[in-house]
Amino acid sequence: MKSIGKVLIALLTLVFAWFSINTVLAAETYPPPPSDSFYAEDYTGTLSVETKKHINAIGYALDQKTHAQVVVVMVATVPDGDLESYANGLFRSRGLGDKEKNNGLLLLVSMKDRKARIEVGYGLEGAMNDAKAGRLLDTFLIPAFKEGDYSRGVQDTYDNMVRQVMKEYG
To answer: H helices within the chain, ranges in order?
Structure first.
């Protein structure tokens, strides 16, 4: 009986270790939010100072009025190339939007990967569905990026995301 108990303990220890290792390996690492710029996080040095100031001012005002948070994050590359999963994880790690309303929006731009995604909290899916998000990227972000005007592309996309939130809240 004692040997069965030891085997069970050893087996449980192995199972626990396996789950712990896989959890650590599966966890994404996200850059820490900067202390000076919650709504415009640029880890690439791409955005102009004016664009970051504009986004932070608009984002703060929107947050104060509606408790919705619209955030831009610029990264050089997504570690595993899976933009959708990375955006979702980053959205959750930042806790965007009001916890009860789940009304956050994230514009994630991966510069070297040449990819962008708008991640939407459930509380704003009526205001910003996948089709609208795609149209915003196609209309504002992509054309400006093709011209090399990254700040304008991000700012115009951001402003239109905020407009959609404001429509939702009247």
So the answer is: 2-26, 49-66, 83-94, 130-136, 142-146, 150-169
